[in-house]
Write a structure and sequence with these properties.
This protein is mainly alpha-helical and 166 residues long. It has one domain. It has helices spanning 8-12, 14-33, 36-64, 72-98, 107-133, 162-165, and strands at 2-3, 6-7. Strand 1 and strand 2 (6-7) form a beta hairpin. The longest helix has 29 residues, at 36-64. It is elongated, with a radius of gyration of 18 Å.
């Protein structure tokens, strides 16, 4: 589904990603300063991020359902989606076990958010691979079997330059 020519999923993900990562930053600020208001802000950022993440997930599943099967894009999309579902579960557990906004979370509860944030970096990269490299959600003529983007950044030598391909 598109909004003004862009995939709704791509538009919506910025909110939960920003909210969930900011919640982690507020947790770190609370740990560093001992200030209780940081725990409260983090609690509500998590709640908002989870709601936004669920909304983005609906549109992500819709986008993925239109990616041709047996393609690199389909496999990456599946990993991206399952990874993000795991991210939401980790952050949801962190939010749930905090109990109330004022409650200071245990190390185990904070670790759920920290692991979720780390995994979010990986799944975000996979989403970037889908959009920037494979053009999924960008164009009906998406390049669903393009090679890995790592090839174009000097980590793996490209076999063809862009000039040669034109």
């Amino acid at each position: 589904m598109k909004i003004l020519g862009h995939s709704a999923h791509q538009v919506l993900i910025v909110f939960p990603v920003g909210l969930l990562i900011t919640a982690v930053l507020f947790d770190l600020a609370a740990l560093a300063t001992g200030e209780a208001q940081f725990w409260i802000v983090s609690y509500w950022l998590l709640a908002a991020g989870l709601i936004g993440g669920l909304a983005a997930a609906v549109f992500g599943v819709l986008d993925w359902s239109h990616v041709p099967g047996h393609t690199r894009a389909n496999r990456i999309g599946l990993l991206h989606g399952l990874g993000n579902a795991t991210v939401l579960v980790l952050f949801a557990a962190s939010w749930w076990y905090r109990g109330t906004p004022e409650q200071v979370p245990s190390t185990a509860i904070l670790n759920l958010s920290f692991v979720g944030a780390g995994l979010l970096l990986v799944t975000g990269w996979l989403g970037g691979e889908l959009v920037a490299r494979l053009s999924v959600g960008v164009d009906k003529e998406a390049h669903v079997n393009a090679s890995n983007s790592v090839r174009d950044h000097g980590i793996i030598e490209p076999t063809t330059s862009y000039k040669d391909a034109a």
